[in-house]
Design goal:
Number of helices: 24
Shape: flat
Largest sheet: 7 strands, mixed
Distance between the termini: 31 Å
Oligomer: single chain
Strand content: 15-25%
Helix content: 25-40%
CATH architecture of the domain at 5-208: 3-Layer(aba) Sandwich
CATH topology of the domain at 5-208: Rossmann fold
Structural class: alpha/beta
Strand order of the largest sheet: 9-8-11-10-12-13-14
């Protein structure tokens, strides 16, 4: 891995260029308190931002540890080559116009060749803010202050990075680094250096595309080894996974399913907004990953308790009921008018009574509570007196110290928790959270940080062309790998149906071959019981080639099991409600291959139709082991044919008490 130490923690900085952006780099370093030397470089100017300028890189006193290159794209390539020859520590390439443009790929290749082994960030990026060593390779304003420890935030977008540094939520940020085009240094590679810094407590990522999945797998293992959790905001929709349009699987897996599955596999928490990223980072910085999503909530308002309860339900955050010993302790301090429950409205009788508030706060926590939250909305400090609220803060601090359990203070709106209070709380090991909804999203994310113990992701490729195989061909291919298919005869003309059905026996299913979405096209008829009915059904279908199969009875539930080759993330396995329910229910789980029997069992358990699979209202359950075996056999088939598989869909997989039978199958093969 390329050594980024000198670039991220320089003692000497060269700034090449004389425009406003380069002057801003110098100003921001002076503002943040950079203690090393700054060397402006300009071929014509004697000074830049008040500092004496050198005419060229070769005139510098020594090879700089870090360089900000603020000139056009063609000049950037030349300068990167010169820095590489000098033995510089690395460079931030500010210029745009490389591979993000139609004519930029050649320039991108030239830039990489010029850099050689010297690390470069970008191009098309702002660079590095390092608030622990007080470095600002950064051509704009920002909101970081010097800190001793805190979280690191890495983004592909420079504007997103700026916005996140402007937060006023008390979050200590050690690094804010942008990767831009990631021509050489991808987000995961940069993160592997940053996360090793002992002063970094957790890592936040803004991801537009993963790029090198292997590097993210390495980062995840390092995160686990160092006990430094990661949370990511992944944006964008994966068009690469939209290989086929003839199946449900492609649409189910096409949006964020692959990226979500990859993050889950890596044990990286996932959020959907910048504020949720910040709030989750606060929890991870303060308490590390939460052991679960069980919370206790206290407020002195029934309205706040109700809103908190409703909001938490939307995010799957739960409130364990009070234990007898908790109720007994609360009874000592609260009026008989208080209804003891979680969330708790403790009324206002004990407001301003620090000892009573401390006792009540402490009583609400316990081993079955992952985070205890005190709802506290501060008044405006410019208009009001907040002394009474400070008593509540002191009570929270005392309760946290007495119990040793994770505590937090939550405001219903971000405006109602001043930054100074948030900073005080974090210093005391109490997490300040802003906005009920965002806080609940953060709690859910912080409880989903996991471990990674999977083998490397099976990566997929882009195919130039694809071809859909017949249903009979698909089923025979899958049956050869141990999957259960009905007795059948394929490729039949209407004249041969009567003869072939005698070999199978009624009842049967008749399907028209070569027809996509057979049900919608009227190319499937179930439960045929005699020859006349069989021929009549065939004549009504929009095809001249037919498949007849035994009619499976005793169905407990129907599943969709599909695999899509997604070049961005790997082979995405989708488990979903099958048959007609695929259209009606948004009921799916996605995994990446290779996966395990335990992961498949866990994914099945998260489906809404799991109630059917496990026996609904006394009905005998489906054979879960048979379902899992089918998925594992399918995985083996995909692994063995990874260079050919664009998509496979089994829909439905009919699940009975003792079988898992492929009733319909789609196989799309690709060629490059």
């Amino acid at each position: 891995m390329t050594d980024l130490e000198r670039l991220l923690r320089p003692k000497t900085i060269a700034v090449v260029g004389g425009g406003a952006w380069c002057e801003a780099v110098i100003a921001q370093n002076q503002k943040i308190g950079f203690s090393g030397e700054i060397w402006p470089v300009h071929p014509k100017k004697d000074t830049v931002a008040g500092l004496p300028a050198y005419r060229s890189l070769t005139d510098l006193p020594a090879a700089p540890d870090a360089t900000f290159i603020g000139v056009n794209r063609n000049a950037t390539i030349t300068l990167v080559g010169e820095l590489n020859e000098l033995g510089a520590g690395g460079a931030v390439c500010f210029a745009s116009g490389f591979k993000e443009t139609d004519d930029g790929q050649v320039l991108n290749d030239q830039l990489l060749a010029a850099a050689g082994d010297m690390p470069i960030l970008g191009p098309n990026c702002y660079g590095v803010l390092n608030a622990v060593d007080q470095v600002a390779l950064w051509p704009d304003q920002h909101g970081l202050r010097p800190v001793e420890t805190g979280v690191a935030i890495l983004t592909q977008s420079s504007n997103i990075a700026i916005n996140l540094t402007m937060q006023q939520r008390g979050l200590p940020i050690t690094y804010a680094i942008t990767a831009g085009n990631q021509a050489q240094q991808g987000l995961a590679h940069i993160a592997q250096t940053v996360i090793r810094d002992d002063r970094v407590t957790a890592l936040g990522l803004y991801i537009e595309s993963f790029g090198d999945v292997t590097a993210f797998e390495e980062l995840a293992r390092l995160s686990q080894k160092l006990n430094k959790p990661i949370v990511a905001l992944k944006v964008g929709r994966s068009t690469e996974s939209q290989i086929a349009t003839v199946s449900h699987t492609a649409s189910l897996a096409g949006s964020s399913a692959g990226s979500d599955a990859l993050l889950a596999r890596l044990g990286i928490a996932s959020v959907t907004s910048p504020v949720a990223l910040l709030e989750t980072l606060k929890i991870l910085h303060c308490h590390g990953p939460l052991t679960g999503n069980r919370i206790a909530s206290l407020s002195c308002s029934g309205g706040e308790a109700s809103v908190m309860a409703d909001t938490a339900a939307d995010f799957g955050v739960v409130f364990p009921p009070l234990q007898p010993h908790q109720a007994h302790e609360l009874d000592k301090h609260l009026s008989a008018l208080v209804h003891l429950a979680n969330p708790l409205d403790y009324h206002t009788q004990i407001w301003r009574d620090k000892a009573a508030m401390t006792a009540v706060y402490a009583a609400m926590t316990g081993d079955d509570i992952d985070l205890t939250l005190i709802v506290l909305d501060f008044p405006r400090l410019d208009l009001c007196d907040a002394q009474d609220w400070m008593i509540a803060i002191e009570a929270v601090e005392d309760a946290a110290q007495q119990t040793g359990r994770p505590f937090g203070v939550i405001a219903s709106m971000a405006e109602n928790l001043p930054e100074s209070i948030s900073q005080r709380l974090l210093a005391a090991g109490i997490v300040p959270l802003c906005d009920f909804g965002t806080a609940c999203a953060a709690i859910r994310a912080a409880s989903q940080v996991g471990t990674t113990c999977h083998p490397p992701v099976l990566m997929a490729q882009v195919f130039d062309t694809t071809a859909t195989q017949s249903e009979g061909t698909a089923k025979r291919a899958l049956a050869a790998y141990g999957m259960d298919i009905p007795q059948s005869a394929a490729g039949l003309s209407i004249d041969s149906l009567a003869t072939q059905v005698e070999k199978i026996g009624f009842p049967v299913v008749l399907k028209g071959e070569g027809v996509a979405h057979k049900t919608e096209a009227g190319a499937v008829v179930l439960g045929i019981t005699d020859t006349d009915q069989l021929l009549e059904a065939a004549q009504a279908m929009p095809t001249t080639s037919f498949l007849i199969e035994e009619m499976i009875t005793g169905t407990v539930a129907e599943l969709l099991v599909g695999v899509v080759a997604d070049p961005a993330h790997g082979f995405v396995l989708t488990l979903a409600a099958g048959g007609t329910l695929t259209e009606l229910l948004d009921d799916r789980q996605s995994l990446l291959l290779p996966t395990t029997q335990d992961d498949i069992r866990g994914a099945l358990g998260k489906l809404k139709i799991n109630a059917l699979l496990t026996g609904f209202r006394g009905v005998a359950p489906a054979d879960i082991d048979a379902i899992i075996a089918t998925v594992m056999h399918l995985q083996t088939y995909v692994i063995d044919h990874a260079d050919q598989i664009a998509e496979i869909e089994i829909n439905p997989l009919i699940c009975t008490n003792d079988r898992a039978i492929i009733a319909d199958a789609l196989l799309v093969k690709g060629t490059s």
